[in-house]
Amino acid sequence: MTDPLLSVQGLRKSFGGRTVLKGVDFSVAAGEVVAFLGANGSGKSTTLRCVMGITAPDAGTISIAETALDSLQGRNLQEARQRMAMIFQKIHLIPRRTALDNVCAGALARIPTVRSLTPMLFPADVQQEALDCLDRVGLADRAFDRVGRLSGGQQQRVAVARALCQRADVVLADEPVSALDPHAAEQVMALLRELAHSEGLAVAAVLHQPDLALRYADRSIGLLQGSMTFDLPSTEITADHLDTLYAPDRNIAA
């Protein structure tokens, strides 16, 4: 693997008097898929939300391409954060808009405000880029369908296309397949792996299905009560590793 696109050191977070993250360290290289595993309350989603800036960490350093975000301000910080995109379990799309409109929204940060007030004003080059992104996720033929008419798996692929249109180098996926049927889940995970490997994206995904991590992630990280228990190639994960993570009463609700 190349040098990490995303590097996290000493990530800590508490809510009230409860410590959720206890010094998490990890990295994700270009072309790599890393899965986070652990029971409910282990700190998986909080980790990604802190990295994305949705939740403010109490301590730790988050770096993109070896540049620490806490060393940046203003426009520089905004541009660095634009290199990351997040995909959620609850698919945040506008159902009444077309797939193309939703993907164009990934480019909002780099077009004039007046051109973003309505999808009809998106520049032609942005619309073409969005079409290309839909093609990369296998949905070019559904570009002008309303998102609300697409299946859950197709909607999640639209969300991936939107991240591509954002031109993100790092994709954070928080339980991206938990709400999908098994076949759609396989398709989305296969797509994330293919994009990482073929286009050099760094993908970090929270998964509740260890079998998907073992098949589609290059590495898997185990979290237990806010601490890392392993960081290993997925091919080296054993039943004992998983038993440690998912044993009853090992975690607290987050």
UniProtKB/TrEMBL annotation:
Q: Which residues form the ABC transporter domain?
A: 6-250
> Does the UniProt entry include the keyword Transport?
yes
> Which InterPro entries is this protein grouped with?
AAA+_ATPase (IPR003593), ABC_transporter-like_ATP-bd (IPR003439), ABC_transporter-like_CS (IPR017871), ABC_transpr_PhnC (IPR012693), MetN_ABC_transporter-like (IPR050086), P-loop_NTPase (IPR027417)
Name the UniProt key words of this record, in alphabetical order. ATP-binding, Cell membrane, Membrane, Nucleotide-binding, Translocase, Transport
Q: Where are the transmembrane segments?
A: none
Gene3D superfamilies noted in UniProt: P-loop containing nucleotide triphosphate hydrolases
GO molecular function term, any single one: ABC-type phosphonate transporter activity
Recorded hits in SUPFAM superfamilies, A to Z, give: P-loop containing nucleoside triphosphate hydrolases (SSF52540)
Q: Provide the Gene Ontology terms for cellular component.
A: membrane
What name does this protein carry? Phosphonate ABC transporter ATP-binding protein
Instruction: Show the taxonomic lineage.
Output: Bacteria, Bacillati, Actinomycetota, Actinomycetes, Micrococcales
